[in-house]
């Protein structure tokens, strides 16, 4: 959801002359948000760990906004800066590699304003998965086979 604010304003960035249209067309930002069921299925399929516990927590986009008001951010400008800061920390290397570093400050300034505008109207949430895993012990026959192979 945090990236959707940047996706909505691609044309705005082209119009402002920040990003060249041909570079934008060839840019791919991989993003996939699995469900908890998908995460559990991969853990089960890999068969390397036992799933001890799995929980989902709903949290504000801005981790520093702990207000109870779910209608809008208390301080949308500060929250916009916080959200843009962690998005920049995560995606700057990818953006910089494709577009160069000259656009970063202006691009994220626009992104900050867009997020602030969004949070003024609606407080957005995202979900955190917390998973506790325990490494499975080697099966007896695998351990015996590995020991025999090592002795050879």
TrEMBL record:
<protein>
    <submittedName>
        <fullName>(wild Malaysian banana) hypothetical protein</fullName>
    </submittedName>
</protein>
<keyword id="KW-0479">Metal-binding</keyword>
<dbReference type="InterPro" id="IPR029063">
    <property type="entry name" value="SAM-dependent_MTases_sf"/>
</dbReference>
<dbReference type="InterPro" id="IPR005299">
    <property type="entry name" value="MeTrfase_7"/>
</dbReference>
<dbReference type="GO" id="GO:0008168">
    <property type="term" value="F:methyltransferase activity"/>
</dbReference>
<dbReference type="Pfam" id="PF03492">
    <property type="entry name" value="Methyltransf_7"/>
</dbReference>
<keyword id="KW-0460">Magnesium</keyword>
<dbReference type="InterPro" id="IPR042086">
    <property type="entry name" value="MeTrfase_capping"/>
</dbReference>
<dbReference type="GO" id="GO:0046872">
    <property type="term" value="F:metal ion binding"/>
</dbReference>
